[in-house]
Each structure stands twice: as C-alpha cells, then as structure tokens.
Design a protein that fits this description.
7-stranded mixed beta sheet; 5-stranded parallel beta sheet; 14 strands; globular; binds phenylalanine
C-alpha cells in the first residue's frame, strides 16, 4: 500500500511538472528548472513573414543554447504570443506573459507601434523588454527596462538620404508614408530632415492610412513633381502596392525604402515595379563576418532558406538577453536590465552590439539593391 502511494505520488509530481512545463499550473507548483522568456511577434496577419522569421531565428538559438546546458544551469523556454501587428494585442500579450506566465524577460515586439504599446506595461512591471527590430526612436524612451538589438530610424533615414544624394546624385525626393504608423512616420521625417540638410529638396510629401489600397491621388501629385527618388518607409504589404501603382502612374523615380522592405514578398509581389530599388537593412546575407557566416549556414540547414534581417536580429536579441542573464547571474528583472545596459562589444550576426546610454545599439547599416528579384548587397554605412 505504502509503496503504491509513493509510486502514485511520484507520478503526480511528474504530471504536475509536465503541466508546469506547459504553463498550465499556477502558484504552488514546484519551480521547474527552466528560464521562461516571452516572445511577442506578428506570427499571423499582414506581415506574418516578419513574425515567422523572428521565431525561426530565436528557435535556432535556443536549441543551440539548451543543447549546451542552457543558462545558469537551466533550460530556456520561449513562450510565444502572436500580436498580429496590432498594438492592442501586444499590450494584452505583454500583460499575459508577465502576470500569467511569469516570464523573466520579453523579446519583442517586432514593429515599433506594437512595441510602443507593450513597453509601458513591461516598464511599470519591472520586466526587461528587448525588441529585436523596433527602430522608432521613442521605443527605448519609454524607460530603462526597454532596449533593442537594432539601429534607430534617425540613423536609418540619414543613411538613405546620404545614399540618395551622394551615390545616386538625387536632387529631389518624394516621400509617401503611413501617417498612423510610428515607424513609417518617424522614418519619413528622419529622411526628410537629412535629405534637406544635405542640400536636397523634398518636392512631394504624401500620407495614407493603414489598410489603404488605392494611392492614385497621392501618386498623381508625386508624378507632377517628377522627383529623382521616391522614399517609401513602410512594410512589404504596403510598399509593393504603392510601388506598382506608382509605376502605373508613370513615376520613373528610383524607389528607396527602409528595413521594412526586407521580406521575400517585396520582390515576389512587387515584381518589376521594385526592380532596381534600394533599401537600408540591418545585415546582408552576403556578410563575411564569421558570426554571420555560422548563423547563415545553421539557418539554411534548419529551414532550407537564407535568413533575413528579422531572423538575424531575433537571434541577436536572444544573444543579448542570454548574455545579460548570464552576467547578471540571476533572473531578477532589475539585475537583467542592468546587465543589458552594460552590453559591450557583444559579437552578433548584425555586427558588434554596444548599448549606448539610451539602450540603443550603435552599428552600421547595409544597403540592399533589388536586382532580378534578388537582394544584392550594395554597401555598408557606418554611424
Ligand atoms: N523597423 C521596423 C519597425 O520598427 C520593423 C522591421 C525591422 C521590419 C526589420 C522589417 C525588418 O516597425
């Protein structure tokens, strides 16, 4: 009888352990030997490519880290939440990860408008939040628990303005952007400021709203000004529509974009309209840096495709976070946050990561050209 009871008790413990492992058991369960990290990304919706790449990059890293014994002797478990690129969903996901799953930190979200919605919750809860890819300047201004693994839009806008004036010898530019999207608007403004400082003239400044499908009124005005370049700081779902309609409207300008162009869909959907376009990006798959080369070959072996910047930065965000937890020697939120801030010269796929005082890494941008439907490396610009 006694033996049976012990066996039953052991089974119960195992079952509870398994449940705790799947996140179904609340307080009272024995803490499992794992470190829970929340990840928020648009796994579905109009920019699902960004979310899928993010997940691929992080899964690859965690598999590697766990196979080598994990962090602080514990296995890392990622808990994914899909925000569908909707800020309301990001806020809900942030709350759920903190209160229900009790994650020690959050990696996410991907787009700036979403991260801006989750960040105040993470900040007030004392849970470190690190966005792989949110480039809007205001993201890390939310507070000291918020950081990122990417450069910021004032830099990215300047890079493209310099490229337009110095390399393309552009004198005039048109800009068309989503007025309700922090990323799109911030990057448009950064480009305009830099382009004008460099002596260029912004001859068309056009806006639209998320979900718009027809841009004829704006594009008619752009065409009448005949700018040398047309800057389109938005994600692939919008810029493919705009680029096609712009060509149909007879606009011959060279198209320029930012990191939001980095998806296989840009060339696949944009086709001839985006041929010859240039955009700023966080890394190039043609990189010869050993960290990048190793990552690219592991990614290809795992997924059968070349990683984009989303995958690279997700991997880098994981590297920053895990390195910080190791150096902190603890999963305490404040200790992790302090360690993230102290990140110096961390070798990552997108280059060495050095956090500045505002928790923004300072690093270079790659310029990519679309040629024959493929991304071709067209240069690097350092800060
Ligand atoms: N920088 C974009 C934003 O802040 C997100 C993004 C990064 C998209 C990299 C594509 C590639 O919203």
């Amino acid at each position: 009888m006694k033996r049976r009871f012990i066996a039953f008790a052991a089974l119960t413990v195992l079952a509870v352990g398994a449940l705790a492992g799947s996140g179904c058991v609340g307080a009272g369960a024995k803490a499992p030997a794992e470190i829970k990290i929340g990840v928020i990304a648009p796994l579905t919706g109009n920019i699902a490519s960004f979310g899928q790449s993010t997940k691929n990059g992080l899964d690859l890293l965690v598999k590697d880290v766990n196979s080598k014994g994990g962090i602080l002797g514990k296995q890392v478990r990622l808990i994914y939440e899909d925000d569908r690129n909707d800020p309301v969903e990001t806020a809900n996901a942030t709350r759920k990860l903190i209160t229900q799953d009790k994650v020690v930190a959050i990696i996410g979200s991907v787009t700036s408008k979403c991260t801006l919605a989750g960040a105040p919750i993470a900040q007030s809860s004392g849970v470190p939040m690190l966005s792989p890819t949110s480039t809007n300047e205001n993201v890390t201004k939310v507070g000291d628990f918020i950081s990122r693994a990417c450069f910021i839009d004032p830099f990215q806008g300047t890079v493209m303005a310099k490229f337009a004036t110095e390399t393309l010898k552009a004198k005039t530019a048109g800009v068309i952007f989503d007025i309700g999207n922090d990323y799109s608007k911030g990057l448009a403004e950064a480009f305009k400021l830099a382009f004008e400082q460099l002596g260029g003239q912004v001859v068309a400044w056009e806006t639209y709203a998320e979900g718009d499908q027809v841009f004829s009124a704006q594009l008619t005005r752009v065409r009448s000004k005949q700018p040398d370049v047309l800057f389109q700081p938005d994600y692939y779902h919008a810029v493919t529509l705009i680029s096609k309609q712009a060509r149909q409207a007879g606009i011959t300008a060279t198209f320029l974009g930012g990191d939001g162009w980095d998806a296989p869909e840009t060339a696949a959907i944009g086709g001839a309209a985006v041929e010859g376009a240039f955009f700023a990006n966080h890394y190039s798959p043609d990189s010869t840096d050993p960290v990048a080369v190793a990552f690219i070959s592991a990614y290809k072996a795992a997924y059968g495709s070349v990683p984009d910047a989303l995958a690279a930065l997700a991997y880098d965000a994981g590297l920053v976070m895990f390195d910080a937890i190791k150096r902190a020697g603890s999963t305490d939120g404040k200790a992790i946050k302090d360690a993230v801030i102290a990140t110096r010269n961390l070798r990552a796929v997108s280059g060495a990561i050095n956090m500045n005082a505002s928790r923004d890494p300072v690093k270079g941008a790659a310029i990519i050209k679309l040629v024959g439907g493929k991304q071709v490396f067209a240069g690097t610009v350092n800060p």
